[in-house]
Amino acid sequence: MDQSPLLAGGSQKSCEPVxxxxxxxxxxxxxxxxxxxxxxxxxxxxxxxxxxGLKAEVSRGEMRVVIxxxxxxxxxxxxxxxxFPGVESVTPxxxxxxxxxxxxxxxxxxxxxxxxxxxxxxxxxxxxxxxVENEGQITTIANSIRxxxxxxxxxxxxxxxxxxxxxxxxxxxxxxLLAEARKESxxxxxxxxxxxxxxxxxxxxxxxxQVGARNMQNFSLLREVGRTRLPVMLKRGMAASIKDLLxxxxxxxxxxxxxxxxxxxxxxxxxxMTRNTLDLNAxxxxxxxxxxxxxxxxxxxxxxxxxxxxxxxxxVAAGADSIMVEVxxxxxLAKSDGEQSxxxxxxxxxxxxxxxxxxxxxxxx
Length: 365
Hints:
alpha/beta; Alpha-Beta Plaits; TIM Barrel; 2 domains; 4-stranded antiparallel sheet; 13 helices; 14 strands; elongated
């Protein structure tokens, strides 16, 4: 499938707004073209839809083209979408999450972070420390995880903490250190944005914006990151249902940014033996509900170093597109989450086992 509309945003380092679709009571329709539909007919359909002030998203398959249409319900219902030459069928998207739904695109999407594409057959590994602490720490870790097989560097410059007295991150200095680590290692970086006031600053340095679990329903922030051209990884909230996660993602896509990853990172349950309960059920369910790539974060999902590898392997077997784990070269000195961070040697071992599981289920790393 041709995913160029989704891949285009990943290489742009800009918070320049993109044009959102019309607001109001939204309706989405799926137009499926005939196998013999010509490019001229497809172009005419898309052009007419946009002339009507509606949004059109095109996905190309080997035999057919799927055109997703979204806009105000009253405007869509009055348009004769089924009369165009080359149209085989027109079907409404009945789910409350329109743009996020698998039906809207009819195929799995791909998201590009730097030069790394997520959503392909291979499993992409993201790794790095919870917090950026100093230049030596982040550069050392970046180089070690790259050699081990990681393709994206994670690290927090702004840290949401339960206690206001805990380490809150280095802010702009942390972003600058991440940029230095990217230059040294060649790895694109993903880092969290916590507040709309910091968005422009984070966009200057990041290759992908992370919206953390505590901000999953910060709708003002979701709308703002949706107006950027950078990829966004949205983490599931601690008490959020799968539907809640999908509806939050809809906020981002509704502003024009389709470069979105969904991250399962554990939810709060009655269980107290682990930090959270990693909901691996969510992976196949999300795969059936949405076209967006799925990331699993077993580090926060279980919160105990010795059990992180087992959950990472299970996530690969469940079908995750990417695994995110925390790695620290001196976890006993870490300013945050040292107890759940893998040592570099442990990470090397884990990558080898991830590769074996991926190959066993017909994938690669």
